[in-house]
Amino acid sequence: MKKHLLLSTVLIALSNFTYGDSHPHWSYEGDSSPSHWGTIDESFKLCQIGKNQSPVDLSQAIASTKQHLTLSSSLSGEYQIENNGHTLQATPTQAVSPIQLDNKQFILKQFHFHTPSEHTFKRKHFPIEAHFVHQSAQGELAVLAVMFKQGEENPALTPLITKILAKGETTKSILNPQQLLPKNQEYFRLNGSLTTPPCSEGVNWVVFKTPLAASKAQIDAMKKIIGQENNRPIQPVNSRIVIEENK
């Protein structure tokens, strides 16, 4: 019964994870900022009382040589890109091949960006963090997180930021999100939550260890589109264990 209720909560959460305006208003500033999320609406209470919340600092991890992730063989295709007022989000307009995590298949539903990063390493933020949100046939969520550091221009980011989208504005483009995933596929694993309301728990997090590069101009363009710092503060790890899965 408990597992069924948790899955139902996660399914509801996925419908909210598109950052739509039809749900209670939340933001990153003022009276609707992260410190207030848990009291804005009853459905957001886990943002305040949850014990397995995300993001976290990933400094303390237990190393493992066993890997449980197989990436998608093909993600290339047309995506709808939207500035929804909370983030820049890209949603596939056609079916894409799944990833496999813990012998379960998950399909990419959307990916979006946070500036600066939400997860930290030794309390250090990166300029950008991308979240690739996947869902299994049973409704379970898995999020792959990729950090970006300032460096050389990243051609894979260019189609996303060529047009500075205003809030509510959309466009379409041919993208290959596989190019936004690091070749070094060592990563951290953690049971966590959505980093936005309703902060639902039971989310499988995979945070890649190796950051990708983005130029200063690309970082500035991403910040301009998003228009604010949209990172939730790090949350207590509590009794959870962070696993560092290496090859």
Report on this model:
By secondary structure, the chain is an alpha+beta fold. 15% of the residues lie in helices and 31% in strands. A hairpin with a 4-residue loop joins β3 and β4. The radius of gyration is 17 Å and the shape is globular. InterPro entries: Alpha_CA_prokaryot-like (IPR041891), CA_dom (IPR001148), CA_dom_sf (IPR036398), Carbonic_anhydrase_a-class (IPR023561). It comes from Actinobacillus equuli subsp. equuli.
Mean pLDDT: 92
Number of domains: 1
CATH superfamily: Alpha carbonic anhydrase
Q: Overall 3D geometry?
A: globular
What share of the residues does DSSP label as strand, in percent? 25-35%
Number of helices: 5
> In sequence order, what are the helices and strands, one letter per element?
HHHEEEEEEEEHEEEEHE
Secondary-structure topology with pairs:
Blueprint: H1 2-16, H2 37-40, H3 46-49, E1 62-64, E2 69-70, E3 77-83, E4 88-92, E5 99-101, E6 104-114, E7 128-135, E8 141-150, H4 158-161, E9 170-175, E10 187-193, E11 201-208, E12 212-214, H5 216-226, E13 243-245
Parallel strand pairs: 1-13, 8-11, 8-12
Antiparallel strand pairs: 2-5, 3-4, 3-9, 4-6, 5-6, 6-7, 7-8, 10-11, 10-13
